[in-house]
């Protein structure tokens, strides 16, 4: 992990904590690995030549904890028999496609960065993460979580942490951290919607749908449409996300509740996208993208600062359609955030 880049993992630590306290051994090991990743301060990797087109390299850790692992597929090579390799390769491509086609972005750094990923990391590792320069996927334990490469929105979520890293650089704690997580949920969902050709009304607005193993009482890790309803299971507990600022969770855990309170800006985006209608990556996504990449958003931005940035982005992008900026303001107001 490069210095200063936080470990951005898809499964919140409070979920793994609960499982570990119940004696679930894969969760115990996953928490230990995540703690080691957070504590690591490694030198950045050697520079990789930029490419004007999509360039992907998939490696296989072989169930070890050694990165990057053995290269098993590079750009343009035929699929292997390994579904995890195929899913990772396709998910990287789908994420690249959204950013390139919808926003004219050349990879996550806008400079043609090669997209690298490692599959089969660790033994039954219950997570996937972006470490500052690479996607890393566990296989899940098969009891609580399945293969983390199987959800295209998980891949889009994690790579968007890279986009945030190279743009606004939102700090990873409290409200800026919740925004960091929310931006990844927003664009992770848009990656899936773009790949499936869904408009805002057709989308499920779930993050990690299909990731929970059979028998777990839940549909996903998070719901942008209805935060707090993604799961309610004896082993996982109940989804703790609030949908409104009045229910904001003040906690010292999870870096100040970054995965919990992200439900508030997540819901604001859902409300905006469905109010505007059509493909969410177009107007709603464009506004969020402009706010993130406009170089005016401070790294310690709170919800109000980000809301103001999105209203300003809407006014700048759609000067002849003031109703769009008004809809952005109304969407934030519905979750208790006033851009004013």
UniProtKB/TrEMBL annotation:
GO biological process assignments: proteolysis
Compartmental location: Secreted
Keyword Secreted: yes
Enzyme class: hydrolase
Cofactor(s) named in the record: Zn(2+)
Chief location: secreted
Similarity annotation: Belongs to the peptidase M4 family.
Function in brief: Extracellular zinc metalloprotease.
Protein name: Neutral metalloproteinase
Source species of the chain: Streptomyces sp. Y1
């Amino acid at each position: 992990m490069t210095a200063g880049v936080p470990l951005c993992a898809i499964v919140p630590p409070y979920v793994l904590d609960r499982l570990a306290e119940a004696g679930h051994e894969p969760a115990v090991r996953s928490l230990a690995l995540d703690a080691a990743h957070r504590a690591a301060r490694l030198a950045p990797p050697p520079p990789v030549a930029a490419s004007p087109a999509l360039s992907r390299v998939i490696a296989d850790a072989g169930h070890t904890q050694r990165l990057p692992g053995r290269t098993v597929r590079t750009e343009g090579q035929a699929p292997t028999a390994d579904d995890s390799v195929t899913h990772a390769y396709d998910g990287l491509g789908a994420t690249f496609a959204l950013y390139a086609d919808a926003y004219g972005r050349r990879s996550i750094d806008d400079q043609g960065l090669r997209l690298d990923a490692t599959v089969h990391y660790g033994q039954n590792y219950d997570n996937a993460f972006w470490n500052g320069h690479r996607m890393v996927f566990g296989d899940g334990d098969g009891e609580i979580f399945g293969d983390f490469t199987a959800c295209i929105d998980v891949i889009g979520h994690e790579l968007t942490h890279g986009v945030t890293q190279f743009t606004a650089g939102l700090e990873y704690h409290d409200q800026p951290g919740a925004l960091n997580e929310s931006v990844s949920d927003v664009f992770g969902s848009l990656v899936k919607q773009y790949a499936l050709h869904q408009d805002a009304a057709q989308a499920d607005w779930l993050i990690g749908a299909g990731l929970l193993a059979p028998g777990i009482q839940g549909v996903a890790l998070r719901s942008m449409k209805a935060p707090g309803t993604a799961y309610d299971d004896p082993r996982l507990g109940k989804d703790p996300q609030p949908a409104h600022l009045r229910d904001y969770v003040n906690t010292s855990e999870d870096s100040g509740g970054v995965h919990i309170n992200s439900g508030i800006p997540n819901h604001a985006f859902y409300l905006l996208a469905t109010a505007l209608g059509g493909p969410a990556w177009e107007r709603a996504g464009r506004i969020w993208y402009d706010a993130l990449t406009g170089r005016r958003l401070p790294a310690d931005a709170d919800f109000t600062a980000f809301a103001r940035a999105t209203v300003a982005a809407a006014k700048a992008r759609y000067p002849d359609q003031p109703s769009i900026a008004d809809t952005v303001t109304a969407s934030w107001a519905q979750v208790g955030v006033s851009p004013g």
